[in-house]
Specification:
The structure is a single chain. This protein has 4 helices and 7 strands. By secondary structure, the protein is an alpha+beta fold.
């Protein structure tokens, strides 16, 4: 029994020291955060003009919308790669959407599904969809956006890989229940 008491005592002491250390770190972090806030308050001049603040907020919101559109485009390329994931692709399209390819219009979600499942080369081969981001364009108009991006489908089974198809997508995306979805897209050629 004598041997157990010192071990218990050291364990208790270590636990107390750990708690004390955690409390000190917490107080230090709070102090640094408060100090940083005070320094920022003194360093930044107070804005007298609400219009300037509103413009900054509008710019931040616009940037957030652009980021969401880039996520939509990235999800498209992921869904179109490696033989395609039709359910993931269809989650990106509005109910009343359409895609026009080679002059043929595929209307509604069923039409868009038919195009990808039965006519798109990306869904028939193990290709990878590559997108040159510097060519991507978004022009936002409230709840709709004009969009343009390219898909260059590479065949990774060939060494070195070979580009099998070059497609552009131009058209409109729209917000549906707070989420950007493809609405009306026209596919065309996109030479490198």
């Amino acid at each position: 029994m004598k041997n157990l008491y010192p071990k218990f005592r050291w364990s208790s002491l270590a636990k107390t020291a750990g708690t004390y250390l955690a409390a000190c770190v917490t107080v230090a972090v709070i102090g640094l955060a408060a100090s940083n806030l005070l320094n920022r308050a003194h360093a930044e001049p107070r804005r007298e003009n609400r219009k300037e603040e509103l413009e900054e907020i509008k710019a931040l919101l616009h940037n957030a919308q652009v980021a969401e559109l880039y996520e939509l485009q990235a999800a498209f390329h992921a869904a179109a790669s490696h033989g395609g994931d039709i359910d993931a692709m269809m989650a990106l399209w509005a109910e009343d959407s359409s895609i026009t390819v080679g002059g043929v219009v595929y209307s509604g979600k069923d039409g868009v599904r038919d195009f990808f499942a039965n006519h798109s080369g990306a869904f028939k081969h193990d290709w990878v969809s590559l997108a040159p981001s510097f060519k991507t364009q978004f022009d936002i108009h409230g709840e709709t956006a004009d969009i343009f991006f390219e898909c260059h489908y590479a065949d990774p089974s060939a060494t070195p890989y070979v580009i099998r198809s070059d497609i552009s997508a131009a058209g409109t995306a729209k917000k549906v229940h707070g989420r950007w979805l493809f609405w009306n897209i026209v596919a065309g050629a996109a030479p490198l």
